[in-house]
């Protein structure tokens, strides 16, 4: 860790409780001179961190930079040993749409499209994904494995695990996952995932995956209806009376994508142990396991809505259910809602 990183982590630490810390203390914690502390503070300010300095009190972190910064994200991902080209937009219609447009023009792999706001954010089943400015972060990863994609559900499930890991490491909070693509914190949806594929018409295989992830970070400003089922990470943590760690959207994206690329690398190298580890974590966080649900198969594939009990989630990310007729089924797509409260219309 560099002095700058050490100072940032001290200023942002829970134990400081958003209070001041003197330059002398910082110098002693980092075992550097006061001048080095001053230099690191200047560098952090240049990066956009707002750090208050008061005589006889010291330094206090006011806010972290929050404009989407492609260089920062690329470097952070690289630090975790992964490579990814990052293209950032303050505003765009939809990062999934932009990824598709660019994939049609040229061959892309490991390219990430990130936006601070979407004007036409897309959800599953033709729904919209509310994506206001200064609130969430919206990003789509283009991933093109050599051998094509046989099981898109796993890619989505892996994204839900990657988001949960990021929320745990950055905020210390444990998320739940609702099969297959929604991440929940304290009963509210904080993240939606939409995985789309680019199919090769000659071979019939899915060549490229576009994994779109939207995370509600703060200031959700959702209307009354949406607020019942969805929320933002910071508002939910604050609502529990806890201190909200200051985390930038750039850090969130970097952490999620570093985690996700690692899982994909293992998956496409057929590392069974890591695949199982990922899915064990998914199962541990599964919101539906053991519950009675309504299954709404995608129209045209399987017919009408039926009730079932969720038994488990398989290593291939299928939902294992037991129907009322006592038949076990493995679902690889479709809509599942809880019988008591309908989760289908979220965000
Ligand atoms: C859902 O909850 O139904 C899925 C929502 C997926 C939203 C993300 S935000 C980034 C990417 N771009 C989009 O238009 N959608 C996905």
UniProtKB/TrEMBL annotation:
Family annotation (InterPro entries): aa-tRNA-synth_II/BPL/LPL (IPR045864), Bifunct_BirA (IPR030855), Biotin_CoA_COase_ligase (IPR004408), BPL_LPL_catalytic (IPR004143), HTH_11 (IPR013196), WH-like_DNA-bd_sf (IPR036388), WH_DNA-bd_sf (IPR036390)
Transmembrane regions: none
Binding positions (biotin): 94-96, 118, 122-124, 189
Gene3D superfamilies named in the record: 2.30.30.100, Bira Bifunctional Protein, Domain 2, Winged helix-like DNA-binding domain superfamily/Winged helix DNA-binding domain
EC number from the UniProt entry: 6.3.4.15
Pfam families recorded: BPL_LplA_LipB, HTH_11
Sequence ranges assigned to domain BPL/LPL catalytic in this UniProt record: 81-268
GO MF annotations in UniProt: ATP binding; biotin--[biotin carboxyl-carrier protein] ligase activity; DNA binding
Function according to Swiss-Prot or TrEMBL: Acts both as a biotin--[acetyl-CoA-carboxylase] ligase and a repressor.
NCBIfam families in UniProt: birA_ligase (TIGR00121)
Family: Belongs to the biotin--protein ligase family.
Protein name: Bifunctional ligase/repressor BirA
Classification lineage: Bacteria, Pseudomonadati, Spirochaetota, Spirochaetia, Spirochaetales
The encoding gene: birA
